[in-house]
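Tutorial, part two.
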Amino acid sequence: MILEAAKRKKNEMLRISKENNMKKGKINKLISMFLVELIILLPVSIALSVSNVQVTDITETSAQIKWVTNESANSIVNYGRTRNLTDTEIDYNLNVNHSIRLSDLDANSTYYFQVRSGDEIDDNSGNYYDFETLFVPLFINVSLPRYTNERRIDILWL
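Running the prediction step on this input gives:
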């Protein structure tokens, strides 16, 4: 009688254990399905990236800096005649196609720059981008007399 009671108790415990394992399995399966759906349905956050940095429309005193970002962001150019980049131009409008005009530059000079959008800085891998403004040729207006002595020409500065 005690032996049969022990067997029944053992069978009862095995049945309860199986039921608990089945419940745990179902709970684990539900949690797994929930996590998969959560991963699929959550929006993926993509880091802001800068690409295609270009310098266009270079003149004696100005240049246009252009670049592209994968998300809308502000536009900042840090620039200078040395690598200290002491000057800044900012456009607070949010764009993916960025364009900043640098003006009042010195002719025939090298300028270094980096671009920034949001928290992303593109400094050409630490080397900075650069460009050179155009040279302003010096023109001298000279009038030669109709008749000149072959050995001498007098030039008057007006």
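The longest helix spans residues 2-41. In part three we will examine how such features are distributed along the chain.
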